[in-house]
Design a protein that fits this description.
Blueprint (H helix, E strand, L loop, with lengths): L1 E9 L5 E8 L5 E3 L4 H5 L19 E4 L4 E4 L2 E2 H7 L2 H10 L5 H13 L7 H7 L6 H15 L10 H23 L13 H10 L10 H14 L6 H11 L4 H12 L7 H14 L4 H9 L20 H17 L4 H13 L3 H5 L7 H11 L6 H22 L27
Antiparallel strand pairs: 1-2, 2-3, 4-5, 5-6
Helix pairs in contact: 2-9, 3-9, 3-18, 4-7, 6-7, 6-11, 7-8, 7-18, 9-14, 9-18, 10-11, 10-18, 11-18, 12-15, 12-17, 14-17
Bound molecules: acetyl coenzyme *A.
C-alpha cells in the first residue's frame, strides 16, 4: 500500500481540506478521510457503503469490471480446479499455501476437532423439526463459545479456536440436517477427508454402508472453494463489525451466519430454486416471469442475477455453470429447473433491462441446482454457503484482530428527526 498523492476537498464557505490518497497493490485508489471530521466537522454519507473502504486487507482481490477474483493472489479458476477446500482455507487464513508438513498438521487438527460436546446434542432436540437450519446453525455456533470460555480472552490460542470452528461447523451443519429429517445423527469418521466426512455425516445411515462418491466429494470441494471468500461483503463486514467490539470468534462468525441468511445475500441460492419451482408449477412460463421482473411487479427480482460489485460477469458463476452440466450428467440427473434457468439466462443476457443495469448471473444462479442434484435439500443451501464462507470470515476476523490500527466499527449518521422538544404529561396533551 502506498500513499502517493493527495486530494483536495473544498467545503461550503471555501474551507479546504487536503486528504491523502491511498493506492493498493492492484492500483486501487482511495481518498483517506480518516481525519476529515476532526479537521473539518464534516462526515461522508454513503448508504449501503457503495463507495466506502472499511479497511485495507491483504486477503482477497476482486475486480468487478473485469470479473477477477483472487484469494491471496491466486486466481479462483486455478484454486477451483487444482486445490481442495482444506488447502484453500489454510491459504486464506495463513496467507500462503501450506507445505506438505503444514498441510498434514492442519488436516490432522481438523480431524481431531470434528466432534462437538455430547451435551450440545440436547440443543438439537429442543428445536421443532420445521426449524430453518440457519437458525439452528447460528445458535449452535454462538453456543460453542460457552463450551470454550477461554475464547472470551482475546489472548487465548487463536489458532486452536480457528481449527475448532472450522471443523465443528461442518458437524453442526450435518447434525442440524439429520435432526430436521428425524434421522439419527452420524458421528464424524476420522478416516475421511473434510468434505467426504461432511457427506458421510449428511447421508450415511447406521443400517447400511455409505461409500462417498469421489465425484460428489470433488463437487463439494469446488463449491466450498468458490464460496470461501469475497472480501468486504455483507456477512464478512458483519463479522468484522461484531469482532471489532472485542467479541470472540464464535460470536463474530455467528453474526456473519445471520447476515448471510438474507435472500439478497447467501439466502439467494434458496430463493433461486423457489423461484424456478414457482415458474415450473405455474406452467413454466418463464417469459412472463421475466416481464413481471422488468415491470417490477410485486417488487420481483430475477434471483441469482445481479451483484453489487460484479458488473460484467461473476467468475464463480462461469465455473459453476460448467460444473452444473458435468455433475448432472455424471449423476444422470435431468432437472427441469436447469432447463428453465438456462432459458431465462439466455433471454436476460440479451434483454435491454438486464444488459443496461449490468445484471448477470451470480454465484447463486446455478449452485442451487448442483446442491439439489447432490441430494442436499433446499433449506440447507445457505448452510452450505456458510460452510464455504467460514475460512473467509475467519481470515478477516484474524486480520482485524491482529491489526494494531483496528478501531471499534462505529459509523456516524446525519440526524433527520425532530429538533429538541419538551415532555408534556399525558393529561395535558
Ligand atoms: N432482478 C431484477 N432487477 C434487479 C436485480 C435483479 N436480480 N438486481 C438489481 N436489479 C435492478 C434494481 O431493481 C435497480 O433498478 P432501478 O435502478 O430501476 O431501481 C437496479 O437494478 C440496481 O439494483 P440495486 O438493488 O440498487 O443494486 P445493488 O448493487 O444494491 O444490489 C443485489 C445488488 C442485492 C445483489 C441485487 O442485484 C439483487 O437483489 N439480486 C438478486 C438477489 C441475489 O441474487 N443476491 C445474491 C448476490 S451474490 C451473493 O450475495 C453471494
Amino acid at each position: 500500500m502506498a500513499e502517493k498523492q493527495s486530494a483536495k476537498l473544498i467545503l461550503p464557505g471555501g474551507k479546504e481540506s487536503s486528504l491523502p490518497v491511498i493506492v493498493g497493490t492492484e492500483d486501487e485508489h482511495a481518498v483517506d478521510i480518516r481525519s476529515l471530521r476532526q479537521e473539518t466537522g464534516y462526515i461522508t454519507l454513503d448508504s449501503g457503503y457503495m463507495n466506502t473502504g472499511a479497511t485495507t486487507s491483504a486477503i482477497t482481490y476482486l475486480d468487478g469490471e473485469q470479473g477477477i477474483l483472487r484469494y491471496r493472489g491466486y486466481p479462483i479458476e486455478e484454486l477451483a480446479e487444482k486445490s481442495d477446500f482444506v488447502e484453500t482455507s489454510y491459504l486464506l487464513i495463513n496467507g500462503k499455501l501450506p507445505t506438505k508438513d503444514e498441510r498434514k498438521t492442519f488436516s490432522t487438527a481438523l480431524t481431531r476437532h470434528s466432534l462437538i460436546h455430547e451435551d450440545m446434542q440436547h440443543f438439537f432436540h429442543g428445536y421443532p423439526p420445521t426449524s430453518h437450519p440457519m437458525a439452528v446453525l447460528s445458535a449452535m455456533v454462538t453456543s460453542l463459545s460457552a463450551y470454550y470460555p477461554d475464547s472470551l480472552d482475546r489472548n487465548s490460542a487463536i489458532d486452536l479456536h480457528i481449527t475448532r470452528i472450522l471443523s465443528k461447523v461442518r458437524t453442526i451443519a450435518a447434525f442440524a440436517y439429520k435432526k430436521s429429517i428425524g434421522q439419527p445423527i452420524m458421528y464424524p469418521k476420522n478416516s475421511l477427508k473434510y468434505c467426504a466426512n461432511f457427506l458421510h455425516m449428511m447421508f450415511a445411515v447406521p443400517s447400511e454402508e455409505y461409500v462417498v462418491s469421489p465425484v460428489l466429494e470433488r463437487a463439494v470441494n469446488q463449491l466450498l472453494i468458490l464460496h470461501a471468500d469475497h472480501e468486504q461483503n455483507c456477512s464478512t463486514s458483519t463479522v468484522r463489525m461484531v469482532g471489532s467490539s472485542g467479541a470472540n470468534l464464535y460470536a463474530s462468525v455467528a453474526a456473519g451466519i445471520l447476515a448471510l441468511w438474507g435472500p439478497l445475500h447467501g439466502g439467494a441460492n434458496q430463493a433461486v430454486i423457489e423461484m424456478l419451482e414457482e415458474i415450473k408449477t405455474s406452467g413454466a412460463d418463464y417469459k412472463k416471469f421475466l416481464e413481471d421482473v422488468k415491470n417490477k411487479r410485486d417488487n420481483r427480482r430475477l434471483m441469482g442475477f445481479g451483484h453489487r460489485v460484479y458488473k460484467n460477469f461473476d467468475p464463480r458463476a462461469k465455473i459453476l455453470k460448467k460444473m452444473c452440466d458435468e455433475v448432472l450428467s455424471h449423476l444422470g440427473v435431468k432437472d427441469p429447473l436447469l432447463d428453465i434457468a438456462k432459458s431465462m439466462e439466455e433471454i436476460a443476457l440479451k434483454d435491454d433491462y438486464f444488459v443496461s443495469k449490468k445484471l448477470y448471473p451470480n454465484v447463486d444462479f446455478y449452485s442451487g441446482i448442483i446442491y439439489r442434484a447432490l441430494g442436499i435439500p433446499t433449506n440447507m443451501f445457505t448452510v452450505m454457503f456458510a460452510l464455504g464462507r467460514l475460512p473467509g470470515w475467519i481470515a478477516h476476523w484474524k486480520e482485524m484482530v491482529e491489526d494494531p490500527q483496528t478501531k471499534i466499527g462505529r459509523p456516524r449518521q446525519i440526524y433527520t428527526g425532530e429538533k429538541v422538544r419538551h415532555y408534556v404529561p399525558i393529561d395535558e396533551r
